[in-house]
Fold this sequence. Notes:
Blueprint: H1 2-11, H2 29-37, H3 41-53, H4 59-71, H5 75-95, H6 99-111, H7 115-131, H8 140-152, H9 156-170, H10 178-194, H11 198-209, H12 216-228, H13 232-245, H14 251-266, H15 284-295, H16 297-302, H17 308-327, H18 332-339, H19 342-346
Helix pairs in contact: 1-6, 2-3, 3-4, 4-5, 5-6, 6-7, 6-8, 7-8, 8-9, 9-10, 10-11, 11-12, 12-13, 13-14, 14-17, 15-17
Amino acid sequence: MLRRARFLVLAVLVLAAAPATAAGTPASAADAVRLYDAGAYPEAREVLERLNREGKLDGPLLYRLAFARAKTGDAAGAEQAETAALVALETAWKEAPDLETGFYLSNVYRNRRRAADARAVAAAATARVERGEWPEPEDGLARFRVAKLYEDQSRRDGAERWYRAAVETLAREPDRFPAYLRWAHRYLGDVEFARGEFDAASSDYAAMLADTPGTPDGWDRLGTSLARLGKFGEAADAWRSAEKLDPANGDRYRYCWRLARQAGDIGKLPVAAPDGRAIATLSKEDLEALMKDRAGVPERAAAGTVGTAELAGARATFLAAALEYAMRNYPIRETAFFGGYAPLIFHPDRWIEPE
């Protein structure tokens, strides 16, 4: 199942522009590519199947055929086409290696969990670029392929450089290769997030999600980066979008957006716990203890033993700890439920001092 999912993701990257066919002219490979790029997979498959029967499909087109078959419910046919694509690509790589062949061959190897083979092909391809044996890519498509080959080697330096170059070029025609742009923005956002560059990360994640429903994971990345910037209202909107896309599995997003919405009502959260330690540095257990301690304040307020200022401070600290906990992808729902303070997340009025 994982291999198939990985195949589907990488297959979306097989994009290219194609001119329209003149009236009465038999459909060609260019027409198949155009239909494929438009998401018309049954129609693209029809053309590709005819060309396949005529023996006119090279490795990249066989790769497209495999994906079109998978999208139209033919899993066995997809496997067969991918096998044929692998043979064609391996032969082309041995006889006349080029950037396109290396890109697709590395993808097929990764689809088939042959990570070492994928790295070897990717390394050989990028080495040729580095030595100047292949011309340095100038168009967005070629730049993307080089970036992806560096990514296949887990070489962040090269991947980041070439993804930035690809975005710079592809952004001039955003409607031509949207899947490439989304992939590049996602990669760059992850790199920036890991470095704590949340402003840049949120920009890349937003670009990744532009003009598309997106995925729960994509909206979650955006929500987290926005919350790290203190943009709680925007973070709440992002997490709510994630929940709407997958409500059956949306508990984490549901808790996150409600925490962010309350944080937005306050405006700014404390960065330190009552004992002076930075909340961002607390361990999982320390965060749990802090949430539980602050969650007990409303009960004491109801008994009249604490005042308004202390209650407000407890709420702010609780939200800061709970958001930190959730943003680290700890089990916020289970912890809040068994800790008995889930209602404080879903009902802000529980933090209001009773008259």
